[in-house]
Amino acid sequence: MNLRKSLLNKMRPDVDLEFLKIKNSSFEESFQNLVIRPVIKVQTLLLIEVFKKYADSHKGIFYQLRPEKKAIYIDNSIKKDQKFRNFLKGIIIGMFTIEEYEEYKKSSSSLNKRMMNLISKRLSDNLQLLERSSVNLTDFQE
Are the C-beta atoms of 106 and 28 separated by less than 8 Å? Predict the structure, then answer.
């Protein structure tokens, strides 16, 4: 096993790509649950900081919204800003092993939709950390 794959696997559960071909669920659902979800969990704090930078660069409007509107803002930002969306995809895909990436390429369009929905949900679930004066993220433990 090469060093990169070994380090990535130490950060998250080992994924048996053959398991993705189980008939009980679609390939996309299996890949989402076994690869994308664990990567997003590992990358949550980075995603939060990236979104805060995004919100700041868009005049800080996000910080003035009510919580229910913040979730909509997050979702719209991810869906409508292609540059931001591609940046978020890079944060997640960069954590794939080569084998996972090869599998990802087969259904990248549907997996990207799932990935963006999960990122949007993760950010919306962490609104308290998306405040300008939020707690120091290095103190936050999942």
Answer: no
Helices (H) and strands (E) in the chain, counts: 7, 0
Distance CA 135, CA 76 (A): 25
The vertex-22 CA angle with 14 and 88, nearest 5°, equals 55
| pLDDT tens, residue by residue, 32-87 | 988 999 999 999 999 999 999 999 999 889 999 998 999 999 999 999 999 999 99
Phi-psi group of 29: left, alpha or beta (phi > 0 → left; psi -120 to 50 → alpha; rest → beta):
alpha
Place of tokens 């939060």: 48
* Residue 110 C-alpha from the chain's centroid: 15
Q: Which residues of 18-32 are buried (b: 16+ CB within 10 A; e: fewer)?
A: eebeeeeeeebebbb
CA-based nearest residue to 12, from 35, 31, 30: 35
C-alpha torsion sign, points 139, 77, 40, 86: negative
Written as one letter, the residue type at 105 is K
- Say which residues have a Cβ less than 8 Å from residue 110's Cβ, sequence separation at least 6: 28
